[in-house]
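Expect chain and fold; see below:
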Amino acid sequence: MPKALVPGAPQAGLVPLRLPMLADVLEVEQRAYAHPWSRTNFADVLRSGYHAQVLMGGDTIVGYYVGMQGVQEAHLLNITVDPRYQRQGWARLMMQAFALWAGSWQAQTLWLEVRVGNARAIALYRSEGFEVVGQRKAYYAAGRGQREDALVMRRSLG
């Protein structure tokens, strides 16, 4: 079970991402990544009706994830834990919530991409039952005009 954010803090819980939360979510996104999603990316998520959940600890955003429903499959597009709360089990909690959501409408497969250099995330995904099934060349921006490959990972729910 994840650690408490601070002693005596309220329990964390997931709530749907809403437009008024975007500024705070963007702050977390920018703290967490060298190449963060933009406000437009998140606004598109809301407009498209994707499954976007924010993990709140009281009034504090701990993290969030964005998933997309497909035909008997779900695709994890973004999962982020505020760097201040990383290595406390929150990403695993959100991964499990994502899988429960997908299973609730009978998805058979979960998909995601991850930077080849993100060893911590790859280890988490493997521990949650994902396997590498492919690689996308030059998928992610990596700065100074460079690109980084992505591993394509899959988990069967069936």
